[in-house]
């Protein structure tokens, strides 16, 4: 790992990365660890089972609600105070879920908990890019992604294990306590990057907040074709994985009548494949440009989705569907951090604002797309899920094609 772009000690760098990684892990764990208990939640709160995927999609959409404001605010007031506020909001909303007495209150708290994800995307990711040089920032995004992906990989299994001793309310209380520890870690170790003089002589700019000016900046960014292609591609590329997370409890436990433990075990191949793709990214990044890396990742990505569509048409069982998802997930893991980097640097505007709109677009695509797949029967039959998930993922190809045509071949090698 190369030295940081701003003057912080190795100990503070390690502490910052640890606290940031833990917060990201918790924001995903807040969704995934509770999924095995969602049928218990709907039963206790006297709600219909269709609320199971709704809770997940509301969590994602909660991540969109504040991002448009968080990015510009962090450009003016700094990344550190905004991220501290976000961890406090996430922790308090998890504690509040312990006291929820209706599905409406529960869903509202899911939106508030999902806002923590918005703080991660709009505030912490730009800080990471501003602390480290390009090659190291891409590597860290991939490595942090690996750790975050342990949530959907281990989250259901951990949820099943915790349910042996705790109920779903107590699990939320545990998440709130963990968020309090993260808040303390960020308070101790997170550096401020906005307005700070860097070692290369440049200064990360402070941008004053203005409603009118912010709207104009967002309008300019929405008129940037390269940015739009990258942001839409990020959402559509992840849509099959997001749909799987949201609908797997219904498909595996309710439709296929698997045990909760079997449900958790079937998650392992898919998310292990994403991690494998991220590890491949770290190796290939040494000798390939971001453009070449994405082109390489499209092979397993497209082949996996085409096989997934074939599974739907042939009516095969769970094994081939999971294998196809795993192949697709390798390509997703290889390409996700690279596409995000292209989106973030497709504009010269402040990275807080660019990251905010990138997150809003990509998470909205994932949340709305997942809701649509659930609404048209993706949770009722495995074949329907496979067909619509494959179709949604392949819709990214026109955006990726245009993105590759307009991306300059900048080598992301170690600096």
Strand-helix topology:
Layout: H1 10-32, H2 38-44, H3 51-65, H4 67-77, H5 79-97, H6 103-131, H7 134-162, H8 168-189, H9 211-222, H10 225-255, H11 260-265, H12 268-284, H13 290-314, H14 318-344, H15 351-378, H16 382-394, H17 397-406
Domain Major facilitator superfamily (MFS) profile: 16-407
Subcellular location: Membrane
Keywords: Membrane, Transmembrane, Transmembrane helix, Transport
Protein model, in words:
- There is one protein chain.
- This protein is an all-alpha fold.
- It has a single domain, classed as Up-down Bundle (Growth Hormone, Chain: A), CATH 1.20.1250.
- The longest helix has 31 residues, at 225-255.
- It has helices spanning 10-32, 38-44, 51-65, 67-77, 79-97, 103-131, 134-162, 168-189, 211-222, 225-255, 260-265, 268-284, 290-314, 318-344, 351-378, 382-394, 397-406.
- It has 17 helices and no strands.
């Amino acid at each position: 790992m190369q030295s940081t772009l701003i003057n912080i000690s190795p100990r503070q760098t390690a502490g910052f990365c640890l606290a940031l990684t833990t917060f990201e892990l918790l924001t995903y764990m807040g969704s995934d660890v509770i999924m095995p208990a969602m049928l218990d939640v709907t039963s206790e709160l006297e709600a219909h089972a269709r609320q199971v995927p709704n809770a997940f999609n509301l969590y994602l959409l909660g991540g969109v609600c504040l991002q448009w404001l968080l990015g510009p605010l962090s450009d003016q007031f700094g990344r550190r105070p905004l991220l501290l506020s976000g961890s406090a909001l996430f922790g308090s909303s998890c504690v509040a879920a312990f006291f929820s007495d209706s599905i409406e209150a529960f869903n509202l708290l899911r939106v508030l908990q999902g806002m923590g994800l918005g703080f991660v995307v709009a505030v912490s990711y730009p800080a990471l890019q501003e602390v480290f040089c390009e090659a190291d920032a891409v590597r860290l995004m991939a490595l942090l992604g690996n750790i975050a992906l342990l949530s959907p990989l281990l989250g259901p299994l951990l949820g099943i294990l915790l349910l042996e001793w705790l109920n779903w309310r107590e699990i939320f209380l545990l998440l709130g306590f963990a968020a309090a520890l993260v808040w303390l870690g960020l308070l101790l170790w997170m550096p401020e990057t906005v307005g700070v003089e860097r070692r290369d002589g440049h200064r990360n700019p402070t941008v004053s907040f203005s409603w009118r000016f912010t709207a104009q900046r967002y309008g300019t960014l929405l008129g940037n074709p390269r940015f739009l292609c990258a942001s839409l591609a990020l959402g559509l590329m992840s849509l099959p994985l997001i749909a799987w997370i949201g609908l797997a409890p219904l498909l595996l436990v309710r439709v296929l009548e698997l045990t909760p433990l079997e449900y958790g075990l079937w998650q392992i191949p898919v998310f292990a494949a994403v991690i494998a793709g991220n590890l491949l990214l770290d190796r290939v990044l040494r000798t390939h440009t971001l453009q070449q890396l994405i082109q390489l990742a499209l092979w397993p990505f497209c082949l996996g989705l085409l096989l997934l569509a074939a599974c739907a048409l042939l009516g095969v069982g769970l094994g081939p569907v999971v294998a196809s998802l795993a192949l697709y997930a390798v390509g997703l893991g290889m390409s996700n951090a690279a596409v995000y980097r292209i989106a973030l640097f497709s504009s010269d505007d402040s990275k807080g604002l660019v990251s905010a709109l990138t997150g809003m677009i990509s998470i909205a695509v994932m949340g709305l797309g997942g809701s649509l797949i659930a609404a048209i029967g993706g949770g009722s039959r495995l074949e329907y899920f496979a067909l619509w998930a494959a179709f949604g993922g392949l819709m990214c190809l026109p955006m990726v094609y245009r993105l590759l045509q307009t991306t300059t071949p900048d080598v992301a090698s170690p600096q």
